[in-house]
Amino acid sequence: MGRPSHHVYSYTITKGTAAAVTAGNDVANPLPSKLNVKVGDTLEVTNNDVATHTYTFLVLRPGETGRYTFKRSGIFEATCTVTGHETVVITVT
């Protein structure tokens, strides 16, 4: 039998996000407020902005990419500082 295939969910925080939020402008937020993944899947977020942002379990300084691999099932609530939603709910099966 082969190894199970795991998915990588990749997202990018774009340059100018913090400035747009500060100016009161709407920002297209590619980061989902709800995410359904499987044990072994990985969340990857790249911060291309000039400000530090938090998404789920990742605190990302400018230019950083963070990765988190889900190791157990459950429902997890986490924080998001990118506009559009403040809470992220991740369901891991």
Number of strand segments: 8
- The ordered string of helix (H) and strand (E) elements is EHEEEEEEE
Domain tally: 1
Order of adjacent strands in the largest pleated sheet: 2-8-7-4-5
Structural class: mainly beta
Low-confidence stretches: none
Helix share of residues? Answer: under 10%
CATH topology: Immunoglobulin-like
Discrete helix count = 1
CATH architecture: Sandwich
Radius of gyration: 14 Å
Looking at CATH, the homologous superfamily is Cupredoxins -  blue copper proteins
Span of the ends, CA to CA: 21 Å
Instruction: Let me know the largest β-sheet.
Output: 5 strands, mixed
What is the C-level CATH assignment?
Answer: Mainly Beta
Mean pLDDT value: 89
**Which geometry do the CA atoms define?**
elongated
Strand content: 35-45%
